[in-house]
Give the backbone structure.
Amino acid sequence: MSQIKAVRGTRDLLPPETKLWNHIEATARRVFARYAFGEIRTPIFEDTQLFSRSVGEETDIVSKEMYTWEDRPRAQSEKAQSLTLRPENTAGVVRAYIEHNLGDAGLLQKLYYIGPQFRRERPQKGRYRQFFQIGAEVIGPPSAGSESPLRDAEVLEMLATLLGELGIADWTLELNSVGSAQDRPKYVQALREALVGIAPTLCVDCQRRAVTNPLRVLDCKVPEDQEKIHALPKIADFLDDDSRAHFAAVRAALDACGVSYHVNPRLVRGLDYYTRTTFEFTHGGLGAQNALLGGGRYDGLSEAIGGPKAPGIGFAIGADRLVLTLQTAASGDRSASALADVYVAPLGEAQQAQALVLARELRRAGLRVELGDGTFRLKKSFEFGNKLARAIVLFGEDEARSGQIAVKKFATGEQAKVPRGELAEVLRKS
Ligand code: AMP
């Protein structure tokens, strides 16, 4: 029979790597809580239109990367519906904000999520078809202050803090403003016109983008194209006074709290809903897929999907890429912390049930316990114990009767008989 494997672009996450995932997620939850964010969990699939109307028909995500299917009706009352595995989570959060009238309270909603996203991309290191994002959104009616540049700066400062707490230091914050919904069409027009002359001299991808989505030309990485792209009109020259003032205020607040950034006029991200502030945090250690996270402001998104005016700003961190960044540091960690505290070895089948009782006592005392098997010979119990735990406890007839338990700590070779009531304490100390 042929072997069935995980689908291309998907992966199994196994221990001990999952420990790092849990650490990252726990750190994110802790930091988000300090900034008064609450968790939201939206469905993994949504109405396809949600993404075409928010992310944008012309984007790579919607035009070629979505997992979409026609859902057959199960009853006459149901209609066939086009459904899509979420390629990102901002649209889902904003849909939920609208659906549950979260703006009615007149306050800012600060929501974070952690979960898988799906895009049919060409898999490579740091790029998968099922990947995980940790993201957050600040959204609300303008009267709650949702348009304020202070929100942008606070979110960016939070990200710098989170990366700091994860021990990631050498990141670069790339920052730009893509202007308002009114500024952008003017810029795209100017870009389109400037591209008419030079497009035939650019790479094939850019020739296509020049027609379908000129902003994407700015993402081009082909070395020969760079000089020409650099000379194209810059979005900064098309910002209206309000967008310009907003961007200046974001930068001033970042300067005030010492978050460094690099203004990158070419940073126009791959989703259509962005307005004004856009950003990415990159990390050199990641190679070609160097964006750790990305985000920006989306002042018109709620209206684009049928909701009230609800400006917002958010980001999504690529959790897979955080793990890659941290993995080098963690690779030496086949240390004591990866091992159980104790291996309980029943010395014979008759002792198995009582060994389970002892293991339960120790686990209730907070220790990490591996339980062996009464059919193992002593030599095998020691071999397994040594691989799995920092200490071994031998549990035979004598121990069961006398309540004096034999313990050996592997690191020191120290051996002792300990009263059952003191065992947990003794093991904790090693
Ligand atoms: P985006 O939703 O495209 O703005 O992406 C936000 C972040 O998610 C990126 O900076 C990456 O870290 C991560 N990301 C996006 N696409 C993928 C993918 N296919 N595989 C792994 N991570 C991804």
About this structure: The CA atoms of residues 372 and 380 lie 10 Å apart. Residues 183-237 form one domain. The pocket of adenosine monophosphate is lined by residues 88, 119, 121, 126-128, 131, 133, 269-270, 291-294, 316, 318, 320-321 (CB under 6 Å).
